[in-house]
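RECORD TYPE: inverse folding
INPUT: structure tokens
STRUCTURE:
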């Protein structure tokens, strides 16, 4: 049964490791591919990305499949979480075979980070290799097709969206062809996800879901946001990033997967304004498990997957923002959309 999540792509699992309290507000999320890996690609459009192993995903390069993708907090420090995932995969012989012994593998684990340093109060609280191992173990222990926790979990624990609290969201769809397309997004944007004039979420407006809050609710929300913005002006400039993994069970080449990663950025642009700034590191990964071949008689068959990829990214952003919970601590104050507007 579909759960409207990245895990609706058969064999794909998601695990979170979340660190809160004692100055911590960060975490790591791992997307674990089916054993044997999935075709992978990436498209980086933010001006300040923090990534690992993304060059390996270039269609011109050797590696065709990866076993896992890591999304992590902790800025560049947090990329160490990928080491824990690599170790876990190596122990199971999962990776690129580089020698005669089946144990001679090098797991290629692309990773990208969001900036959340100090948001719990302690600048040195950040994910490490143990965090990555905990997240991949959580993914491996989950059932196929399991629901994915959303909101302030994993890499979305310390995420923000403008003056609002950000987080993790996911969504999926099934095309008429039977192909599944899904996304998981970590919303940590410099830009806003909300129209300040009405309180509506940009993503919902883009999807044709117009939910305008009542005037008195919006006015109260504006006062609360003004207070949060005033407090934020005393803090260092925002350094952010929105990350996404778009997955499909279609049989795609690396070049086609790279096109999917690129067009999925449109889904971010619909829901976050402005986007792809110098202090963003917006990065989208694409995974294709290959279970469903494209129609060879239809040269434009990929178009439906491309359009769906952008749509599920937008929906995942909306779900992340609606699932987030407010934070008021030593590292700052970020009200949640739910606190301000409820379920209007």
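DESIGNED SEQUENCE:
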């Amino acid at each position: 049964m579909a759960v409207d999540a990245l895990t609706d792509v058969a064999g794909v699992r998601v695990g979170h490791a979340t660190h809160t309290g004692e100055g911590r507000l960060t975490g790591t999320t791992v997307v674990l591919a089916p054993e044997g890996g999935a075709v992978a690609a990436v498209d980086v459009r933010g001006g300040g990305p923090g990534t690992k192993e993304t060059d390996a995903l270039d269609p011109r390069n050797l590696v065709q499949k990866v076993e896992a993708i890591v999304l992590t907090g902790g800025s560049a420090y947090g990329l160490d979480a990928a080491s824990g995932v690599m170790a876990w995969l190596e122990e199971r012989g999962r990776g690129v075979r580089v020698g005669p012994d089946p144990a001679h593998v090098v797991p290629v684990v692309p990773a990208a980070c969001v900036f959340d340093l100090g948001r719990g109060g302690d600048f040195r609280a950040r994910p490490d290799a143990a965090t990555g191992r905990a997240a991949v173990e959580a993914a491996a222990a989950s059932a196929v097709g399991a629901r994915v926790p959303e909101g302030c979990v994993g890499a979305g624990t310390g995420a923000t969206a403008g003056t609002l609290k950000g987080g993790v969201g996911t969504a999926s769809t099934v095309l008429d062809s039977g192909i599944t397309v899904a996304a998981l997004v970590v919303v940590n944007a410099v830009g806003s996800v909300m129209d300040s004039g009405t309180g509506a979420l940009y993503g919902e407006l883009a999807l044709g879901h117009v939910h305008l809050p009542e005037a008195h609710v919006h006015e109260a929300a504006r006062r609360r946001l003004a207070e949060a913005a005033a407090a934020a002006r005393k803090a260092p400039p925002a350094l952010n990033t929105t990350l996404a993994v778009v997955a499909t069970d279609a049989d795609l080449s690396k070049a086609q997967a790279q096109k999917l990663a690129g067009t999925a950025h449109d889904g971010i642009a619909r829901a976050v304004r402005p986007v792809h700034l110098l202090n963003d590191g917006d990065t989208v990964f694409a995974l294709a498990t290959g279970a469903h071949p494209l129609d060879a008689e239809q040269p434009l068959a990929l178009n439906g997957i491309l359009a769906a990829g952008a749509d599920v990214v937008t929906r995942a952003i909306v779900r992340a923002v609606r699932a987030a919970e407010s934070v008021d601590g030593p590292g700052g104050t970020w009200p949640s959309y739910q606190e301000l507007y409820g379920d209007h």
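NOTES: The radius of gyration is 19 Å.
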